[in-house]
Amino acid sequence: MKFVVIISVLAAIVSALISCFIVRRVKKRVSEMTEVLADVKSGNGNRRILSAADEFAAPLAYEINDMIVSYENRLSAFRQTEETNKRLMTSLSHDVRTPLTTLIGYLDAVHKEVVTGIDRDNYIEIARCKAHDLKEYIDVLFDWFKLNSDELSMEIKTVEAAELTRNMLSDWIPILEERQIDYNIVIPEQPFKVNLDTDGYMRIVNNLIQNVVAHSRADRIEIILSRKNSNMEIILTDNGVGIEKEDLKHIFERLYKCDRGGAEKGSGLGLSIVYQLVEKMNGSITVKSVRGNGTTFTLLFPLVS
Amino acid sequence: MDYIIETENLTKKYGAVISVADLSLHVEKGKIYGLLGRNGAGKTTTMKMLLGLTRPTSGVIRIWGKALWGNEKKLLPRIGSLIEAPGFYPNLTAAENLHIFATLRGVPGRHAIKDALDLVSLPYKDQKLFSEYSLGMKQRLAIALAIMHDPELLILDEPINGLDPIGIAEVRLLLRRLCEKGGKTIFISSHILSEVSLLADVIGIIDKGILLEEESLAQLEQKSSKYIHFTVSDTAQAARILEQSFQEKQFTIRDDHNIQLYHSALPVTKIVSVFVENGLEVSEAHTCEGSLEEHFKRITGGEGIA
Fold this sequence. Notes:
The complex is a heterodimer of chains A (305) and B (306). Chain A has 305 residues and is an alpha+beta fold. Chain A folds into three domains: 2-76, no CATH class; 96-148; 157-302, Histidine kinase-like ATPase, C-terminal domain (Heat Shock Protein 90, 2-Layer Sandwich). Helix content of chain A is 58%, strand content 15%. Chain A has seven helices and seven strands; from the N terminus they run H-H-H-E-H-E-E-H-E-E-H-H-E-E. In chain A, the strands form two sheets. Chain A has a five-stranded mixed β-sheet, covered by helices on one side. A two-stranded antiparallel ribbon of chain A has the order 1-3. In chain A, helix 2 (58-111) runs antiparallel to helix 3. By secondary structure, chain B is an alpha/beta fold. Chain B has two domains: 3-221, Rossmann fold, CATH 3.40.50; 226-289, 2-Layer Sandwich (Alpha-Beta Plaits). Chain B has helices spanning 43-50, 72-75, 94-105, 112-119, 135-147, 165-180, 193-199, 217-224, 235-246, 268-277, 292-299; strands at residues 3-14, 17-23, 26-28, 32-36, 58-63, 66-67, 79-82, 153-157, 185-190, 202-207, 210-216, 227-232, 251-253, 258-262, 282-288. In chain B, the strands form three sheets. A six-stranded mixed β-sheet of chain B has the order 7-8-9-4-10-11, with helices on both faces.
């Protein structure tokens, strides 16, 4: 009898000790997790709760981590946009300041009568051109902001793209001839029915040709429209300076300019706009280039059957 | 500014030999910091001190604003590190090796081991033993171990050691992604200038245990790019003159008085004299030139970095 009592008392003490021990472990774990959560709450989304897979708190810890990661991913997308906008503002102020100040330089010279007669007329003409370039830059910028704030209303409807392209390209021919750029344009007679926003499509093609004219130093351009499987394919090739392999990966990114450090005209937004427009119309764009040997852009838009 | 890692006058002496002297590092959140120096410059010693593996002779290390000494147990689990060769079991596979560490240190999720191996392009279900791994694969596994617990801060000593060019590019991309998308802070060391300049946002240059310079890559590039800087009374006129008299169009106007001319082979004196002839006051004109390499050669006193 006495023996049984001793045993049960001992068992009670042992189990009390064990539960004390477990409670302390749980408490310690909970306080660790609370500490991590407080850190996350104060804005540190990179903090994680670490736990071995067989630990009692593991499922809870992993669940919380998953939640933190998914919120953090969304936040980081926001932060990246913010970062780009910040960079855009800085680069914008430089990109606007240099041409604008130069323009003022010419007008001031005219105003102070540093130049007279035909030189004076020349200066005014230069200033006028610079003002137009600046306006073009600001138009591009405006497009880009509209695209990125999703304010651009696209009117996607089924259009006949071959005729549309032919009409657009005919506007380019005098410009190409003036710049002494040889051209080869192939557009088949049969109709190509594609779902497009007409304005957006025109901007895509115009931007790509404008790039060739302004930056590639090419003396030959080839534009071929054809059917490829169930797509309309437009291949635009120039024989200009080409794009460095390292640059090629980034050219559709906003603000990416191949010619770094200088004051080359260009916003670094043109191809980013092209890319976003193409995507919005369910098309695709790819680029191939060899430094010194020209560049090829390939556009694909699904045909309406 | 809140720094993730901050050291004050960190010094380490081995007997009479001073390995690291008066080092004051500042690593910002969400940036990649590259510690650049030649072999024996004190890079590894610095990293060992940051990880609490060796005690500094004097000086303070603060990580997340807390002194490292006394808080190691709280701070170190939040860091992922790669320093020298980690102790992997040669008779186990990559996944088995990581499993041991996962049980010891804890991981943030059920699939942490597979995720880490995926990130460094090592197969998860592979019967290959660690002893059969090539040097490059061992290095990848070491990186996997460093990132397995999704740490906020990575301290990696020469992470690209032993990797082939494709592997180097992959690791570079991985680290950039961890930093840009994941918001991690990364502290790496290297003796290869070109590598650091491709990867890091901020570069600290250490030579003979002394931190010579700590600057953002953008600042360094500014310093090392080739241009002529003019401080003049009127940048608008300066710009007009550059275009009209010299047919130069590659310039950037910083403000009303500062203008920088790029890619020009013209002698500075010639430009200055034409500016003056046109009634401009020129208070400063200097040429900035040279590559990063030359810059480092200058600041290390002629010996260069790599």
